[in-house]
Amino acid sequence: MKIVVIGGGSSYTPELVEGIILRADQINVEKIVFVDIESGKEKLEIIGALAKRMIKKSELSIQVDLTFNRIEAITDADFVLTQFRVGGLDARANDERIPLTYDVIGQETVGPGGFAKALRTIPVILDLCKEIENYASDAWLINFTNPAGMVTEAVHKYTSVKAIGLCNVPINMKEMTANILAVDREAVTMSFAGLNHLVYATNVTVNGVDQMPTLIEGIAEGRNMNMRNIHDAPWEKDFLLALKALPCPYHRYYYMMDEMLVEEKQAALEGGTRAEQVKEIERALFEVYKNPALKEKPKELEERGGALYSEAAISLIASIVSDDDAIHTVNVPNNGAISNLPDDVVVEVTCTVNQSGAKPIRIGPLPPELNGLIQQIKAFEVLTIEAAVTGSKEKALLALTMNPFVPSSKVAKALLEDLLEANKPYLPQFFNKECS
Amino acid sequence: MKIVVIGGGSSYTPELVEGIILRADQINVEKIVFVDIESGKEKLEIIGALAKRMIKKSELSIQVDLTFNRIEAITDADFVLTQFRVGGLDARANDERIPLTYDVIGQETVGPGGFAKALRTIPVILDLCKEIENYASDAWLINFTNPAGMVTEAVHKYTSVKAIGLCNVPINMKEMTANILAVDREAVTMSFAGLNHLVYATNVTVNGVDQMPTLIEGIAEGRNMNMRNIHDAPWEKDFLLALKALPCPYHRYYYMMDEMLVEEKQAALEGGTRAEQVKEIERALFEVYKNPALKEKPKELEERGGALYSEAAISLIASIVSDDDAIHTVNVPNNGAISNLPDDVVVEVTCTVNQSGAKPIRIGPLPPELNGLIQQIKAFEVLTIEAAVTGSKEKALLALTMNPFVPSSKVAKALLEDLLEANKPYLPQFFNKECS
Amino acid sequence: MKIVVIGGGSSYTPELVEGIILRADQINVEKIVFVDIESGKEKLEIIGALAKRMIKKSELSIQVDLTFNRIEAITDADFVLTQFRVGGLDARANDERIPLTYDVIGQETVGPGGFAKALRTIPVILDLCKEIENYASDAWLINFTNPAGMVTEAVHKYTSVKAIGLCNVPINMKEMTANILAVDREAVTMSFAGLNHLVYATNVTVNGVDQMPTLIEGIAEGRNMNMRNIHDAPWEKDFLLALKALPCPYHRYYYMMDEMLVEEKQAALEGGTRAEQVKEIERALFEVYKNPALKEKPKELEERGGALYSEAAISLIASIVSDDDAIHTVNVPNNGAISNLPDDVVVEVTCTVNQSGAKPIRIGPLPPELNGLIQQIKAFEVLTIEAAVTGSKEKALLALTMNPFVPSSKVAKALLEDLLEANKPYLPQFFNKECS
Amino acid sequence: MKIVVIGGGSSYTPELVEGIILRADQINVEKIVFVDIESGKEKLEIIGALAKRMIKKSELSIQVDLTFNRIEAITDADFVLTQFRVGGLDARANDERIPLTYDVIGQETVGPGGFAKALRTIPVILDLCKEIENYASDAWLINFTNPAGMVTEAVHKYTSVKAIGLCNVPINMKEMTANILAVDREAVTMSFAGLNHLVYATNVTVNGVDQMPTLIEGIAEGRNMNMRNIHDAPWEKDFLLALKALPCPYHRYYYMMDEMLVEEKQAALEGGTRAEQVKEIERALFEVYKNPALKEKPKELEERGGALYSEAAISLIASIVSDDDAIHTVNVPNNGAISNLPDDVVVEVTCTVNQSGAKPIRIGPLPPELNGLIQQIKAFEVLTIEAAVTGSKEKALLALTMNPFVPSSKVAKALLEDLLEANKPYLPQFFNKECS
Predict the structure, then answer these.
(1) Confidence class of residue A116 from pLDDT cuts 50, 70 and 90?
(2) Count of Cβ atoms closer than 10 Å to residue C134 Cβ
(3) What is the 3-state secondary structure (H, E, C) of B266-323?
(4) Contact A310/A19 with Cβ under 8 angstroms?
(5) Which of A242, B152, B334, C51 is the most buried (most CB within 10 A)?
(6) Beta A63-67 vs A31-35: how paired, if at all?
(7) Which region, left, alpha or beta, applies to residue A226 given φ > 0 means left and ψ of -120 to 50 means alpha?
(8) Subunit partners of chain A (3 or more CB pairs within 8 A)
């Protein structure tokens, strides 16, 4: 089995390598190829060397290759994992800072920041998919690149590649739920429905007994239900009790928009935005990775976020390979799972997974208290994807206007101009129209 | 034919009387009954006297009755027109002012103001409908009471009364379109789709030729496309061009939320909110109405807003009576007209009208740029109606949280407490639960 | 020696009693009279009983009297201590909440909250001073009632009473400075200059060596320099280094206005304003005080704020009595101490104290970085005092307009109307003008 | 008599030339020299050619010279007029836009925009003054360059040049007052006191009768009391009545900070900031100036603002030349005129002017309602000047923190970094410290 990692020089890669080693009994990997762009050479080599040391220590016989030649890497791949970041952390810092100048939350995945990231990323993944269609048409694309929902939807709408979008939010929500309920993660049964970074746990049981009220009680008492990269604003208990569902940590941006905006502005004034903090964390991480004595995933990686990311990824691959019909929460086309949404949009839902892919477990109609926001965001996503593919400023303006963080079409227009200008090198679809 | 007007003491009533007189050839009214509550006695009598003078001058033989006995009035009615305002302008002033203390637009029909108004109004209209079911089960209910969409939906969901909700926004949009295009209103063909105070003209033609671009050009140049009671913030041209549909004047609250909030706050600081201005206008109007020499609708009434309201109402009644299958834009159950929405929610759409009522002309799916907002607001409406009927604070909190003017569930909760407290006398469903 | 405490039923009183007991060697008190208003009877009796138990345990022979008869109490007093709160905590809650509805920090001592408190308090203290002039013309008035600076200035401008205003901020700043520098409080020499709740430490030495840089370094590292009742927003280090002076904890409201406003709004949404929290703390404290087994100041009192308050008060009285020329930082008429300010305004400065009172140690001109803000606030104070005495709405409007938390004269006017209305029972000077 | 105009290529220059022609009986100019920098060559030549055509038409024998050689120009000058703009309109656009990204009013003369302009301008004028000291030590410097108060104060504090700062605000206030009172401007007597762009008319009489109440009434009714470049927010009548003085148009930024900020943000979103509008006006003006048939000041110049600027300037020069002791309101050292301010700061006050210069008419102490704001702004100015001269980031940070538009020291620091970075080419005192 051959696994190709696009964006192999990412600081997250050691997490993935560890997962492959730990699950060696379930997935029999022969070769891992790390691909990156030439400007990422130094990081790629550090990661490659560490991966080789980790595998050597594990006494497995897995070959590790490093390359800038994407086509060569992809050819005959079984799995292509995408975790690249177009424009790097500098672009992310722009995604976060520029909207703040209009009193708008940036947020790199769900707000205007995620919008800009989608515009940069979708053309790149579609190019990659053309290569997969040509050189590895049976390969599975497992996409981690954010905004993972929109990126995966673009792949499904515009290519024939077999793609699943994956995020570590649902698995972490389950893990934190288990902690709050003081049971093992395996003992918890949870159903998820929604969109990437906008997913709700609609049902939580342990041994068939509804645990949602206990869980909400625990959260209201301050038990942790958050990701490391999100300001930990406390939830309003009465709201959760009324909702009768558990919002994901990113829902804070929608349900506490005022607090989150204030926090982002304060952070930008004081310690820098998240991108700027991450830059520093990454710099330090690569220092650690360089150490030739290091032969395992260092504990410092946990600072970086991304907990359980490898667990989610490798177990998903294992289900495809072993055809075990196990349950995973992933991003796939709706195909009737949520009956208020069209078939062709990508949703994040509980699925059974086997060698033919991920099939959503039917949910039916969402109640209005969930449906209102999900419809709004899905409309934003559909328009963003269309803008990213066509370079249409009209679609882009419509998308931004309907993002809930943006207070008006006038702000949307000014912000769009600024975002396009700041991302010019990455947006040929908007700027080189005569060439396309 | 017997027409009953609930809230007959309204300052708008002379408009209605004029319409009945002008259309006497199409609708043969024998009796008009004006009903009001006892505290509105003085206004009711002023209106009644003016109506009698107007009819006398017209030389028609229409009987005018005034009463506080609603059941007596309704019995054997053919049409029941509802234009009452629970709590009067003082309640409206609260609807507008209280949200501003949280930096939230109040707005008496579409924001938290409209939410509070729905909570006060829906129990009253459902009581009325029980009486109609018992004493005039064949009567048509024509509802003007705002929020007209939610009120009409409550009637359809909880009673068997034949009801149509009516608003003067679509007819005014058509009139202003005709002015901008410099043609007669009859020459303009327009299709409308959406919700009350959230309706879009999706199509505008004159003699079969698409006039949307010309219309948008005109609006961008500053031609009037607004109602008297809405701050006339200018539209962003590129946004309208991208939307390819014409938003209604109330859409400013959504697409220019920042500007509208600032304007409402400034108005509250300076000249008073809209409710406070209207109080003064009404006081002056009733002075004019009192004049025994006045025998027609005075021109001062136009100041009050409500242009073409009578035109819309009387022509709708005429279509029902004459079974003419004419086109009207009204609020009726969706029944598949907009395919992204459930059947049982009320929408504001172009219909054909005959003696069996109003049938929507099928629209199909709304494009995402319209659907996102409409779904969000409809979810807010469905939850508000449920809260109004059941007195559920949970549903009320969910509704307010998802209103786009409300930035967080914490603000929603504090605002809900304040709104419930301020409206206590009108909200038995929330406060007298043990009695219901 | 006879000490009279106006507002004797305050929860702070046990602190004071403890101080009198601990310093019995320095001040020989024969009688303490606690005065309060009739509606405070229950609290007064609880405090009185606790005070008697404390004194009994100390084996001192001090007589404790309780009375509602202020004149009787004052007659022949040596010291009159004022710590009353006109309107109680309900009025304070209004002071804090009403301004927030205009996006204005309320703050009970330095903002529009302090403005409203001054309007309520100054007429009461001037009435008291008339009684002192008549019945105890040699008595010293030691005023703790906030806003202590304005209240003390009113006494000096409008009466002949010998008055000193006292606040626990300077002594606490010195205590915290000692902690940061890791020396005893006695080892620290600090000079203070400014206004009440707007005082700067302009000089900090230990054994003659300047410690300001070390102190600022410590604060920038997060060492505590705050009072219990103020949100602990961190100081901007570069700003402190540039200022070369130590602002008091209340300066956060001016130098971090954005953060403090956000925090006050969030607190009002979540757990209640400070007044609402204090109500709960007080309720609990009085439960503790009631316990007949309690014979000393309970440690729970520290929760309430007010640390070192008794230390400051009793040592000040001791200096007057013993004529020791000791150094105290108190509120007295400027009389040339700060040369940029007029003689007759009250300032908070380092003084020598003896039996003729407190004499400021000359400071000279303040540098522009301190003078700008102090002049602005002093102008606000002078106008507020004039409004409080005369009931002039014009002076009140000018005062509020120039408060730095108020963004415009329009907000000032609307806020003034609301504050006057909410405080109507306490503002005869504004509402009963014909009677005065 | 030789007049030198530094920044001669300014679009305002034709106004000045017209003034010299119209007052040729009072001031006998032999030579005018227009100086500019080389990058302004085209504009300088257009202006020069127009000036020559204007003078030729007037049949006066005044020589017009154009040069880039400042020293040559200055040598033996009688009057040096400064109206240059360091960094041009691009720098002004930055001054206006950058603060808005922090929700701070920019404003090119009184806010952080004026702060940045002062940092750019003061080093240049001090260089010029060194040349005047050396080559024309008897010349008068008449400074129009904004921020005129700070620039003039820097000249007085750091050079021996005889300098007067001039602004067209007082003369326009008088003109508008005359219009409102319906009398000739000569009939109005007004006293002014304050700072540049922060000046109050403290007294208005016609034939010895106080007209302040009538004037305020007129302004409250909407009569014009504004400059062309300031958003015309209406004054709060009760505030003006309480103030008993007439604020200048720029005071809107302080007394209506909320409205003005909103308006600046809206303008930046829609039509561009004032700088961006002025760029377009200037472009059009120079097209008009080029026309060889044009031989007079074109009426289009009035669009540009600057009304009565030439009238103020030439009449001031005439008073110096003719030694007539006439009354002018100009910027000069305080020297005791306003007794709350130090002697060495520049104030804008009513003066008598003769050949020894401008002598303030004594005002005495300002009342607190004027003094609070003036002290605050003067402190900001003193620190800004010191920062501009020394390149001290500490002084710059203190200055910005105390500007009333800046809500916190954290915003001040971030904004300072951005302003310094954007103005780097013009701020050698901050960036080339090793060279100075």
Answers:
(1) very high
(2) 11
(3) HHHHCCCCHHHHHHHHHHHHHHHHHCCCCCCCCHHHHHHCCCCHHHHHHHHHHHHHHC
(4) yes
(5) B152
(6) parallel
(7) beta
(8) B, C, D
Tokens read off for C77: 């007093």
- Cα distances (angstroms) measured from residue A115 to each of A387, A420, C254: 10, 11, 37
Query: What are the structure tokens assigned to A403, written together?
Result: 């993002």
Q: How many residues does chain D have?
A: 436
Q: What's the token pair of residue D434?
A: 């090793």
User: Annotated catalytic, D254?
Assistant: no
Cα–Cα distance, A21 to A55 (Å, whole number): 7
- For residue A394, give how far its alpha carbon lies from the nearest alpha carbon of chain B (Å): 5
**Numbers of helices and strands, H then E, in chain C:** 17, 13
Give the alpha-carbon dihedral of C240, C243, C248, C249, to 10 degrees.
-30
Measure the CA–CA gap between D406 and B22, rounded to whole angstroms.
Answer: 62
**Token reading at B311:** 């035109």
Q: What is the ipTM of this complex?
A: 0.95
> Nearest CA to B149 among B177, B169, B175, B129?
B169
**DSSP one-letter code for C406:** -
Question: How far is it, in rounded angstroms, from Cα D411 to Cα A265?
Answer: 10
Element (H, E) at B352: strand B346-354
C225 neighbors C198 (Cβ within 8 angstroms): no
Which residue of chain D is at minimal alpha-carbon distance from C386? Answer: D368
pLDDT digits (tens, 9 = 90+) for B133-165: 999 999 999 999 999 999 999 999 999 999 999
Measured between beta carbons, the chain A residues lying within 8 angstroms of D261 are none
Instruction: Grade residue B218 by pLDDT with cuts at 50, 70 and 90.
Output: very high
Determine which of B102, B231, B241, B375 to mutate to test the interface with A (most A C-beta atoms within 10 Å).
B375
Nearest CA to C349 out of C357, C358, C178, C340 is that of: C358
Chain B residues whose C-beta is within 8 A of a chain C C-beta are: 100-101, 103, 266, 268-270, 410-411, 413-414
Please count the residues of chain B: 436
Residues of A in contact with C262 (CB under 8 A): 262
A418 neighbourhood in chain D, CB within 8 Å: none
| C269/B411 CB distance under 8 A | yes
Confidence of residue C435 (pLDDT cuts 50, 70, 90): very low
Mutate to test the interface with C, among B101, B263, B417 (most CBs of C within 10 A): B101
SS3 content of chain D, % helix, strand, coil (to 5): 55, 15, 30
C interface with D, Cβ–Cβ < 8 A, is 235-236, 238-239, 241-243, 255-259, 340, 368-369, 371-373, 375-380, 382-383, 393-395, 397-398, 401-402, 404, 407-413
CA distance D194 to chain B (A): 29
- Mean pLDDT, chain A, rounded, equals 95
DSSP D364: B
CB-CB neighbours of B263 under 10 Å? 18
In this structure, what is the dihedral angle of CA atoms D90, D92, D96, D97, given to the nearest 10 degrees? Answer: 20
CA B245, CA B261: separation in Å to the nearest integer? 24
Which chains neighbour C (Cβ–Cβ under 8 Å, 3 or more pairs)?
A: A, B, D
Residue with tokens 């951005």: D418
Q: CA-CA distance, A337 to A349, in Å (whole number)? A: 8
B97 → chain C, closest CA residue: C101
Closest Cα of chain C to B416: distance in Å? 12
What pTM value is reported for the model?
0.91
CB atoms within 10 A of CB C60: 14
Instruction: Give the whole-angstrom CA distance, residue A242 versus residue B387.
Output: 12
Q: What is the mean pLDDT of residues A354-381?
A: 97
Determine the Cα–Cα distance for residues A426 and C398; give it in Å rounded to an integer: 55
**CA C385, C390, C394, C396 torsion-angle sign:** positive
